[in-house]
Amino acid sequence: MIKLILTLLNILGAIILFLVSYLSLKAYKILRERIFLMLLTSFSLLAASMIGQGLLFLSLYLSHPRRIIMISLTFVSNIVSFIFQITAYIILAISYSKRVRERSLLSLSVLMSMLRDRGFPINLYIFMGGDIICIFLLFFIAFQALLIYLENRKINSLLVLTGFAMFGLSHIFRLISLLFLNDTLYIFSRIIYFLGIIPFLAMVIRVNRVK
Amino acid sequence: MKRKPRRSKLRIIIDILKIIDEENGARITRILYGANLPYDRLLKYIEELKEKGFITEKRENNAVKYYLTENGINFLMEFRRIESFIEAFGITF
Question: Does the pLDDT at position A5 exceed 80?
């Protein structure tokens, strides 16, 4: 039952993220700035990773395939989802460091050198390594979002900050769940991830209310 | 002294539309002050906005006033939404 709920949360979350992508597309059509294409790509990738996993888990839930097929498909979908997420966060981090009002104390290059110096065993622990990269990228993105919020004090900026911070928190929980092989923590991390999408929905609703 | 960044063409168009919207129809002098543009450049923008169907011209008491059309109102509303969205990400244009 919990798997079905998580699957549905994935699909619902993907729809919300697609709405943010759609707003980015509209912004691009009007302003013709490349940064909106970057936002469009990153939110679409996040949405695609969620909907892909959601639909796969739903079909596995409904068709009850053999265990080996189930494990293989889940593994592949997790890898693809990770690649999509990391790419999305990298694009977001680049777009934040590039165009967003230049008030940052950290730069992407500093972050990358931090990652390099630590020498994460990405080849050995793909998922843990992936999560660690996501945490670092989201730390950077949330930090930029915090600076923006401190500067403009807009509720929409606070919602974006909350969303990214919760994404980061969810990756921390997922990393801990992988370290201790704890299913409850994994489920918890997925719920936090979904809760992180809610502020983006609130932002989309607020944007559409503007007259 | 730090120079103010140049306004983009879109920013100028939005400024003009906002003034007309706020005044619920505005004369050229009001737009001129509000948009902070030289007269000849403003006329070019006004012509362009009329061609695009965003504003319309009406003669009232021997004076010409400009009003937003349905298209102009929709464009401005769409822009305000986009503005609120991009502000959330701290983007300026």
Answer: yes
Residues of B in contact with A25 (CB under 8 A): none
Q: Mutation target for A interface from B52, B74, B89, B93: give the one with most A CBs within 10 A.
A: B89
Two structure tokens written together for A174: 């997922």
3-class DSSP state of B58: strand
Q: Which two tokens stand for residue A155?
A: 């509720």
Cα B37 to Cα B2, B4, B8, B34, B42: the distances in Å are: 20, 15, 13, 8, 6
User: How many independent structural domains does chain A possess?
Assistant: 1
- Is the per-residue pLDDT at A120 higher than 50? no
Instruction: Return the pLDDT at A124.
Output: 41
Domain assignment of residue A110, given as a range: 2-209
- Taking CB atoms and an 8 Å limit, are B85 and A207 in contact across chains? yes
Q: Quote the pLDDT of residue A109.
A: 55
Domains observed in chain B: 9-87 (1.10.10.10)
% of chain A residues with pLDDT over 70:
86
B91 interfacial to chain A (CB closer than 8 Å): yes
The pTM of the full predicted model, rounded to 2 decimals, is: 0.81
Put simply, the answer to whether A207 touches B86 (Cβ < 8 Å) is no
Long-range contacts at B47-51 (CB < 8 A, ≥ 24 apart):
B48/B13, B49/B13, B49/B16, B49/B17
Element (H, E) at B65: strand B63-68
Interface test with B, best of A22, A38, A143, A156 (most B CBs within 10 A): A156
Q: How far apart are CA A67 and CA B9, in angstroms?
A: 60
The answer to whether A154 contacts B88, with C-beta atoms less than 8 Å apart, is yes
User: What's B2's DSSP letter?
Assistant: P
Contact check, Cβ <8 Å, A210/B92: no
Q: How many residues does chain A have?
A: 211
